[in-house]
Amino acid sequence: MNNRLIAREPVNCDPAFVETIADQLNCSQLIARALIRRGVSSLEEARRFLEPKESDLLDPFLLPDMQVAADRVRRAIDDGEHICVFGDYDADGVCSTAMLVQRLRKMGASVEYYIPHRHTEGYGMSADAVRTLNEHGVRLIVTVDNGVSAFDEIALCTVLGIDVVVTDHHSVSKTLPQCAAVVAASRKDACYPNRYLCGAGVALKLIQALNDGTYAPEELALAAIATIADVVPLTGENRAIAACGLKHIQSLTGLSALLHVAGFNQPRVDEMTVSFIIAPRLNAAGRMATAMEAVHLLLGEDDTRAEEIAATLNEYNQRRRDTENEILEEAERLIAACGQIGRVILLAHESWNAGVIGIVASRLCEKYHLPVILFADQEGVLTGSGRSIAGVDLFEALSLFSHLFVRFGGHARAAGVTITRERFEAFRPAFEQHVEDNYRAEDFYPAYQFDETVRFGELTVPRVKELRLLSPYGEGNAEPVFRFNNVRFASLRTIGKDDKHFCASAVQADQVMRVIAFGKSQLLEPLNKAADWDLLARPTINAYRGSESVELFWICANASEEKIAFYNAFFQQRLYNGDCSDGRIAEWYGPRSDRFHAELDDVAMRKHYRRLQNALSEGSVSLFALIRALRNEELLALCVFTQLTFFTYDTETGHICLNTNCATRTLGESPLYQMLNDQQEA
Questions:
Q1: 531 in helix, strand or coil?
Q2: How far apart are CA 56 and CA 245, in angstroms?
């Protein structure tokens, strides 16, 4: 369970600046340091972070082509041209569509909306959709959350006499579609200060441009949902959109109905409500049926049907969860059947729902900490959705094989691929080999960020409540996670359905806190076998029968870093940046802590040797991986056997391998073994 624990930069905050923020903004130094770690560099920035306001929204005309876009839309309204808002089937797309349609209707426009069917049409504009809209008499298409890559479809629009205004936030290539306007902060020539607006964020800017800089509360609410759901950075303008828009969500009839059918009964809507209740249900419409139903709900076209539509979306979401679990179980069976897992997981199945596989890929990626691409095989065409880890750029790796794909796009952590079955057979081994050859073993070790190291006593109930000043949390503004050193666990027990979770008492010196770990019951055994851990956890408030206490949500735990330092130093024969024998290192570290002591008699050593021999039977393994996988007494045995040359350590690669040509040696010839025996006798 050894993971890389990485402090958020900058690790060292200027004490004077910390004190200034705390004094001037009447907050704790804990909050002040958190602000600095989140990029705040001035007192005014700190004030805007803690008190986001609608006045923080930027001038919409700073976006490229915005004036042209607004003028073209106004001309269409004045001339009575029929307009189509062309959206997308995810939460960002349906929110964008609903808010712009509603605004155009208020302005007296003749307007309809179109969202492609995920399973039959796929993402974005298509030639068939364009021809259908032409038959409807559409003379202007305004895209939301799509359009920057629709070169052929926009060219067809031109032939048919349809103008197109693109509003989008996806990555823009070197060339732009030839149309009336391309409004995108992601354009290479854009000077807009916020390059990370979501699709609904860009739609909100168009609404501002059409309405003298203003917008309705319900439009801000929809932009807030999309900003959180589409996982864009919640900093700067995006933070203001999210924080201010959250306040208006319950005022929308459709969203209020959706919260009601989902059983929501909290006093306020926050980012967690959006992420785990609202967004999944809006997304479920496009995954399981048609996203048009989600737009109907958000538009509130028929208030009497709001509860009915909301109930339908809730049912879709339950079906999505059931389908997700079925795919996950089948994927786990396929992984088990493969035997050994490499450095990437590629799976395909003819019965999988292409709208759900991305969620399952994300869950598998989190569990195995490997890149995962799942493919839905439909009549010889495989539609894939991939997720990756921080160390492996999925888009970059896949781009080398783009000549094999029918369609391909994405970014470092997520990508979509369409490929024929015949080409998939060539792609799969080639891609697996590419990942194997071009990434280090260390790239696949889990790494977790934390804000700072604190002691249990520092996280009082008022301090933990104060952390909510940093919300809404999300991409670019993660909820604070803290590191607690030298923790032991007691009273460990499983909880929840199927005993998948556990709770425990975490003990640090004379302080005790309750820890909850979701889906981590398999860790009970290793936690019971060691007395000293460095814990990462997220603090929260537990209210029970009128009493409040701080509770910790488990993130991960490491064997104490002193232990890791010992094994690194021992095998590299380095102590304080100087060359040193492994015997000298053992003498220096050994007496300083009883955490390295273990019963290593002849019987135990034979057992440990068999375990080590099995672990290294298929070739060399990195030292870091062994520290993660082996118990302390097994690692000490590995040190002893390495001194006896039964195993060898390569200082250049950091790998250990079995030495099949070693001479016969006795345990007593190991200085470390002698020292451990001497300590036991003493």
A1: coil
A2: 13
Encoding tokens for residue 350?
């003819």
**In degrees to the nearest 10, what's the CA dihedral of 169, 175, 180, 183?**
20
pLDDT digits (tens, 9 = 90+) for 248-274: 999 999 999 999 999 999 889 999 999
Judge whether residue 142 has pLDDT over 90.
Answer: yes
Separation between Cα atoms, residue 248 and residue 644, nearest integer Å: 70
> Would you say 521 and 494 are in contact if contact means Cβ atoms under 8 Å apart?
yes
Q: Look up the pTM and report it.
A: 0.81
Q: What is the dihedral of CA 41, 43, 47, 52, to 10 degrees?
A: -40
Report the b/e string of 619-635 with b at 16+ CB within 10 A: ebbbbbbbbbebbbbbb
Considering only residues 107 and 662, tell me which one the structure prediction assigns the higher pLDDT.
Answer: 107
Count of CB atoms situated within 10 Å of the CB of 55: 8
Contacts of 353 (CB under 8 A, 6+ apart): 287, 288, 323, 327, 376
Q: Which domains does the chain have, with CATH numbers?
A: 4-9+448-559 (2.40.50.460), 56-316 (3.90.1640.30), 340-442 (3.10.310.30), 562-681 (no CATH)
Paired tokens of 451: 């804000």
Interatomic CA distance for residues 532 and 507, integer angstroms: 10
> Residue 618's CB: how many other CB atoms inside 10 A?
9
Tokens of 396: 């970059």
Under 8 Å CB-to-CB from 179, ≥6 apart: which residues? 154, 157, 158, 163, 164, 165, 166
- Residues 610-667 have pLDDT tens digits of 889 888 888 888 887 787 667 777 888 888 898 899 999 888 888 899 998 888 889 8
Q: What is the DSSP string of 444-475?
A: GS-EEEESEE--GGG--HHHHHHGGGGPSPBT
Residue 112, classed as helix, strand or coil, is: strand
* Cβ–Cβ under 8 Å, residues 470 and 477: yes
- Note the pLDDT of residue 585: 46
- Quick one: which H or E segment has residue 589? helix 582-589
At 469, which amino acid appears? L
- List beta partners, residue 487: 533
